[in-house]
Design a protein that fits this description.
Mean pLDDT: 88
Protein name: Phage tail protein
Structural class: mainly beta
InterPro entries: Myoviridae_GpU
Number of domains: 1
Strand order of the largest sheet: 3-6-9-8-7
Distance between the termini: 25 Å
Organism: Cloacibacillus evryensis
Strand content: over 45%
Length: about 120
């Protein structure tokens, strides 16, 4: 999904949250506290919200279906902010709420919360 804002189309995100952690193994020791062993960095996780509004040139139903298909297929996508490549990510979780429907039965807006996780290719 490409986020953009123009005279004909507005597709932007909000509430971006980023989570990262270190990975540790915990080794049990009889009669003492466990010992931690640093394994390395964990995968980056990012969540954000997207408002898909038909009044701003977007087909909310079509857009949410594309996101669902990407999630269900495990499609890997490149996350880019401006001209900076952040890395490869997959959609791990997608939830959506929708507004009223128009005369044709299509939702006038859908707000989606998207969770993505960093994707590292094996051996890299």
């Amino acid at each position: 999904m490409v986020f953009e804002a123009s005279a004909d189309l507005v597709r932007t995100f909000s509430d971006l949250q980023q989570k990262s952690a270190a990975r540790y193994a915990e080794h049990e020791v009889i009669g003492k506290k466990p010992v931690l062993e640093f394994l390395g960095p964990g995968l980056e996780e990012i969540s954000f919200k997207v408002q898909l509004l038909s009044s701003l040139g977007v087909d909310p139903d079509k857009e949410i279906k594309v996101l669902q298909e990407m999630r269900d297929a495990g499609e890997v996508g490149q996350l880019i902010f401006g001209e900076t490549k952040i890395g490869k990510f997959v959609i791990t979780d997608l939830s959506a709420s929708e507004g009223p429907r128009d005369k044709q039965g299509a939702p006038t807006w859908i707000e989606a919360e998207i969770n993505i996780k960093e994707y590292i290719e094996h051996g890299k």
